[in-house]
Amino acid sequence: MDPCMTPKVSIVIVNYETAAYLPRCLGSLAAQSYPNYEVILVDNSPGDGAAEYVAEHYPDVIVLRSETNLGYAGGNNLGFRHATGDYVAVLNPDTWVDPDWLSELVQALEGDPAAGLATPKILLMDDPSRVNTCGNAITFTGITVCRGLGQPADRYDAVEIVSAVSGAAFLIRRALLAEIGAFDDEFFLYYEDTDLSLRAMLAGYHCLYVPTSIVHHKYVFKFSALKCYYQERNRYLSLLRTLRWRTLFALAPCLLASEAIAWAYVLLSGREHARSKLRSYGWLLRHRRRILAARRVIQANRRVDDGVLLQRFSARLSFTQTIGDRPATIVEPTVNGFLLVLSRMGRALATSGAGR
Predict the structure, then answer these.
(1) 311: left (phi over 0), alpha (psi -120 to 50) or beta
(2) What's phi and psi for 290, nearest 5 deg?
(3) Given this structure, which CATH class describes domain 8-217?
(4) Is the per-residue pLDDT at 78 higher than 70?
(5) How far is Cα 185 from Cα 189, in angstroms, rounded to an integer?
(6) What's the CA dihedral at 43, 44, 46, 47 to 10 degrees?
(7) How far apart are CA 68 and CA 338, in angstroms?
(8) 245 phi and psi angles, rounded to 5 deg
(9) pLDDT digits (tens, 9 = 90+) for 255-285
(10) Three-state DSSP class for 31?
(11) Distance CA 192, CA 197 (A)
């Protein structure tokens, strides 16, 4: 493959206390088949030795050092500003990629002008026979779940349109970043991949899942009090900025159901989680003017109605990671059946006034 005949890709990796994973991650990038790319490492944790290691062992990698922790969103945005490629790939440092990972993603986007982003099949690094995610699924509650988590790796073997990419690994057109904006620094951690996917869909693009592109991810489920704060805060921050008011009203029963589920979980998790959930409300109230200002900017880029987005939303939540396999088999049918009814009502109400 002639590098001069292929689009250039900028691969952005944000390091935050993940120096131990970099040798395998960068080594797998060096072995990939795609010929025209640059690697940008954003060092979000100065002092852990990552920048020095990369400079010594991978001199072709562009190292950007931040004196402060910019978060996942801000760290990637720093890398985006230095990217020179036609495409930008985001990759977690705790991953390693198959040789055709990048070429398959580029080929998918080159063959579908309406696709703005592409996400690979991500397998569990500790058990590659199982799926981490095959693109993410945004539910009618606003909660985003890993599509296919824990299922056999040979499932999900067709290219599909999905509602969101996984922030662990995806490819986006650089022109699309210029059109809709990059990650929002405000998010800091969590949900920024869903928000970017939603904004891309509003602009008339879709997200592709590409099963022939394979990434292995060191995925461990954690729901710390800090994650609870950012996940819950950012979920509503994104929904309030991207969906029409009519749609938010129509989805209110689903959102109320999600609140009941979230509060049940945080109360079982302890006081710190409950405080974090309350903090998320407080932040949204204090920054309501900023949210409305950002909403006006995002809505100005709207090219499609919310009905297009809702067609790609899911009514299915998974509770396996939070309460275990056996309780989940009891809880999921009831909760998901209830959500299915609410989501159908909400979608009908939201789309009945489409275009108004």
Answers:
(1) alpha
(2) -65, -40
(3) alpha beta
(4) yes
(5) 9
(6) -100
(7) 45
(8) -60, -40
(9) 999 999 899 989 989 999 999 999 999 999 9
(10) coil
(11) 9
Helices vs. strands in the chain: H and E counts, helices first: 14, 12
Residue 8 CA to residue 6 CA, distance in Å, equals 6
With contact defined as beta carbons under 8 Å apart, do 65 and 51 qualify?
Answer: yes
Long-range pairs, 147-154, Cβ under 8 A, ≥24: 147/209, 149/318, 149/320, 149/321, 150/320, 153/121, 153/123, 153/128, 153/129
Q: What CA–CA distance (Å, rounded) separates 46 from 65?
A: 7
Task: Give ∠ CA 80-85-87 in degrees, rounded to 5.
Answer: 80
Report residue 59 as tokens.
């001199």
E strand or H helix that includes residue 106:
helix 101-110
Phi, psi of 66 (to 5 degrees): -110, 135
Pairing of strands 37-43, 9-15: parallel
pTM given for the model: 0.94
- The residues, ordered by sequence, that sit 6+ positions from 185 with a Cβ below 8 Å of its Cβ are 70, 71, 73, 74, 77
DSSP state, 292? H
Residue given tokens 């939201």 in the structure block: 350
- Would you mind telling me the total number of residues written for the chain in this entry? 356
Task: Delimit the CATH 3.90.550.10 region(s) of the chain.
Answer: 8-217
**In the prediction, which pLDDT does 316 show?**
85
SS (H, E, C) 126-181: CEEEEEEECCEEEECCCCEEECCCCCECCCCCCCEEECECECCEEEEEHHHHHHHC
Are 53 and 19 in contact, with CB atoms under 8 Å apart?
yes
User: How far is Cα of residue 99 from the mean position of the Cα atoms in its chain?
Assistant: 23
